[in-house]
Known about the structure:
The protein is mainly alpha-helical. The chain is built from 10 helices and no strands. It is globular, with a radius of gyration of 20 Å.
Amino acid sequence: MTENHFVPDALRPVNRGNGRFTASRTIVALMLREMSTRYGDSPGGYLWTLLEPVGAIIVLSLAFSLIVIAPPLGNSFPLFYATGFLPFTFYQSLSLAVASIIGFSRPLLMYPRVTWMDALLARLLLNTLTSVMVAFIIISGIFAIEDTPGVLRLGHILLAIFELILLSVGIGAMNCVISGLYPVWSQIWGIASRPLFLASGVFFIYDSMAPVAQKVLWYNPLMHISGTIRSGFYINYEPQYISHTYVIGVGLVLLSFGLLLMGRFHRDILNR
């Protein structure tokens, strides 16, 4: 596609300048390029990034309000499903973005000034800022429209965001290498990860599940993260199953192996 060959001036090789400043300028240029290619050519641009989760939350709220009298926590269907759906879409969008950094930025990575780490950081920053902005607007709208308590535990929310970033980048980096070396992996991972939407606490809370299901789903880090997010919004919700050590440990292992493999095989993937 033609947009992949657009090279901002900041990405052109230069012979002087502070290395740290040059890297920062490269990352910003990559972010601007992605904003232009992803949102600039589509009707509504960033508006669709907001409307899609809003539509999904409204549909979930209406559907489940016809089945049950009240959500598992609190009295607001939109808030309950927003605190499950938004973290999952954060994970999904960021992990997919990191997994495709080489394919998306392949022409630019041929420049000596542009590295795979620049591309990773650009996508990390852009997707994180976008997801946090969308979540803030949606949650603020729910608080403004519905009679919901406004007491938040920001420490829990920020910790969950950190865990989401760690896990998403780790999984994304691993998938980037594996799918780059073995393209069929993209299809395999897509099929294998589909049940995550049902198994990550979007529709329910861990505490209400059968013991057999709890034993299995405890090993899903996203289940711990959704519980942490909800404990930040529901002041009386204190889930006992959450292990931050487990979630951060899994994230660090995946991230470490992902970055090591990226450093070792990114040239092989580029030259394919």
